[in-house]
Fold these 4 entries.
Entry 1:
Amino acid sequence: ITTAVLAAIAEHEDPWDQLEAAAIAHANALLASGDLPVIVSPFFSDSLASLRGELVAQRDHYDKIIASIIDKLDLPPEIDRRIFRLHFLGALNWLPTWYRPNSGMTATEIGRQLVVMLRR
């Protein structure tokens, strides 16, 4: 997910465009593999116990990438950027729980729609 997001945001300078590119890349990467939902979950299975430190470090690195985009957004002053970030990532990471391929929307459309909703 990190690799896909970094490549996607590199193509944009506007922070809202970067956030949309990040959402699209995140959604597509997450839904492309059945293994990733287990890794992005905050509840690591016992089978991943030996990797926990590395997974947390990767998650924290990714979190900083998203936070740096959000820090540049022209949000109203009453919007808490930490809550905004957690809401954004939570919505994306919940996709494998409810997404159905025959739902009429692609991962790209869902990622784009998420940012449209946050931007308004």
Entry 2:
Amino acid sequence: MDFSLISNTFITIFTTDVFFYCILGVVAGMVIGTLPGLSATMGIAILTPLTFWLEPAQGMAVLLGIYNSAIWAGGISAILINTPGTPASIAQTFDGYYMVTQGKVKKALNMNTIYSVIGGLIGTVVLIVFSFPVAEFALKFGPPEMFAMALFGLSMMIGVSGGSVFKGLLAGALGLLVSTIGMDPMTGALRFTFGNINMLSGIEFVVVMVGMFGVGEVLYQISKSSPADKEARKNAQIVSNTAEAFPTAKETKASVIPTLVCGAISAVIGAVPGTGGDIAAIICWQQTKNFSKHPEEFGHGAPEGIAAPEAANNAVSGGAMIPLLTLGIPGDSVTAIMLGALMMQGITPGPLLFSTQTVDVYSIIISLFMANVFMCLLGYGAIRIFSKISLVPMKWLNPIVFVFCVVGTYAINNNIYDVFLMIGAGIVGYFLIKLDFCMPPIILGLILGGTVEENLRRTL
């Protein structure tokens, strides 16, 4: 590794307009990630064509800024309104929203930013130091290993089931059942489509996620609105003005090891083609709970419950870039789009990239590093704005959340059918909440069901 070339590239980027394009990407990702339903994949897919008129370094700075920032910003809506902005932020609903109900709004948002940046930097370091070894290890993952990883992810249903493991398993079974809708992954036979052409490709898990977490929560908040609830919300707002804005020294110390371990593990998970931040975050949340000295606090506002998954889903971005740059194999859906963007810019990913286009590689790595730094600065600066959301009366907040859910869902496929499906999922989610079921096991089953089925059958 040529450190002199890295330093020269670093100086060049900071003395050119690449610097400002990276900030532009971070701001765009912040807006995209905060809106429920709009994922990092969607943001990059929409904005990639606009980068073709830019220089390679400028275009990649924009895309990497969106990539990192959208994943971080997805945790903002997950914490504030219990609706994940992106699939990778689903684990933030486990503890983040509970901290908001306790009035610890600024602390939750600051932790979301701090540990997002730490995770992103860990992923960048892994990308710099271990590119080829990690890529070589990740390529050894075949159907048996993918099945084992997905099955391990499904086992997390028990940990996120709340008070009743039985209800959690029932909810997870419902998610697995819904994941079978559509075409058989091996034979192409139609299953449970009932002649509806919109169901041929299955049920979009983002649509169900936004419906159950967003619309379901809105309906539940409306149904339980009472003077006592208004008084509790008012007290939480009073606490939010006096509560500490940053984690205490004790909380920080307890989060150090989980953050570093989860960041390193997630960077490797991100390098495995077909995985993503949602799987990494859920796995790391559960493992952090297992090794914690106070596991009973998880799901009830545990600081490590925010730190570990947020570091995990951001570390995935650096890991996913490893197989992309070294072997030309995208690690997730976002890097699959980036692969096309790189080739349009004249950058051909593969083993020869590091020797023939070294400057471009270092520009990408430094842009990834800068995106995390700007994310930290802009995130901290925007805390005051985002924390005001908790002060908005529920009679105004609920309609706003519903509108965002509709807009974000429609934008996924530009299909009104998804909106109706999202509303239906919200109604189901409302009744499940009333019956004291947990939503995360359903989403787990829906996300991982297809992966488990396909890789098990391929293995057999």
Entry 3:
Amino acid sequence: MATGIPKGYRSLNLPSLRLDYQNKAPASEILQTPPAEIERLWEFGSEQTAPNRLYFSENLGALAALLSDSSVCGQVRLVYIDPPFATKSVFQSRTLNHAYDDVLHGEEFIEFLRKRLILLRELLIEDGSIYVHLDEKMVFHIKVIMDEIFGIENYRNCITRKKCNPKNYTRKKYGNISDYILFYTKSDSYVWNRPVEKWTEARAKEYQYIEPETGRRFMKVPVHAPGIRHGATGEPWRGKMPPTGKHWQFPPDKLDEFDARGEIFWSSNGNPRRKVYLDENAGIGVQDIWMDYKDAHNQNIKITGYPTEKNPELLKRIIEASSNAGDLVLDCFSGSGTTLAAASLLNRHWIGIDNSREAIKTTLVRFSKGTEAMGDFVNGNRAQTDQQEGLSFDFEPVRPKVSAHDPIKDFNLFAECSLSSLLDEPAKHPACHLAAAVATA
């Protein structure tokens, strides 16, 4: 079997590729985007002690405003965004409230997202990362755009996520059960806490040997790798040359150290293999196909009811892998606040932005009382019960907690001044009302 010799993107000298279309603005022009005028709706504490921020704003102007904030610009360690997918659809919550419009498509959608990606790049710290969640319609176009903005050498993965159970309408095509997450970094040096899947007996089956002296399980791996080298790793070791077309993975003196510790297994015909012990590995490294983070919309999982809500465990994996405690995480399509809640749980600071009244309302309810079972059989006819009790709300009221939840209080709430028409009656505005509820929960 032919063996390929892997090369990084930097060594391939790939030509620069561009995606051209009408009305594609120069990056320099996008960086001059006028900042949105922002006002504070609610403040945590008396001395503005909370670094966490939630913005009720169109995100382009809000991102432009953050460019002039020295505590944010160049300080964001991780960006995760789950933008509209160019579905040409209008989305509602489970309570049938309007959530957001996803009506842009084609060149309009590409330029819409490109503008925000350019600003997000400026907000990232040099060792920061960005994850962009898309489906099959636009992921290939945005991959080229992100190559332009972040550099093809900073592309890390296109992660495939299983989003739902198998579908039945497969008469003329394969079932569509996946979407994709593009993972890029700002530079070649970036925060990376390698995620692993813990060992199970099935996963550990390759560790099939037991060392008689210690009882430790191990597997045998080659001590050579593809490619010819002319330095120490291409020289003889213990009188043996590496196989044709290959080199030793380690210099001979390092191989001697392994052998002295009993970590080289010699076959009956004198071929060396290195012992890799099961107990020295926390687990198997996570691969780029994720099967365990399906969308949470079913009868048995607690959710907010916001459309396209993502599984919080998905966000926990990303946040833990690409940031550390105390780092700043940003989501400018924050929706129901899944990223923000996960970041808070993991002791990260966060900034969330969304221009949907329903999104801000849902996020604040989530901060106050967590998520809840949303299935029809769980809820019953709750609206009728509220009516019988003489209650009237234009948004979901804050209800008593049914399970342990620590309210998220340490954040400041802002709004774009151009949305002032929604703030004419502050007492009826869900953001103000629920922010107060969070403060006293």
Entry 4:
Amino acid sequence: MTVPFSALVTWLFFLMEKIGDYSENPFEGLGNDIPMLSLCRTIEIDLKEMIGEKEIPPAIQAKKGVLM
């Protein structure tokens, strides 16, 4: 019983380390990160609409289901 339990605990610690490494930097630009470009463009569009500007840039579209 010791060997399977030790393997399970080792796997859990390894998995927690990998998840921590992956979520350590949310601004890398990977698929699950914060879509900074899209957020900035949305703010830009909203501000330009508020001041009544005519030339408003298009919103960022998702590529393969992922916003960047």
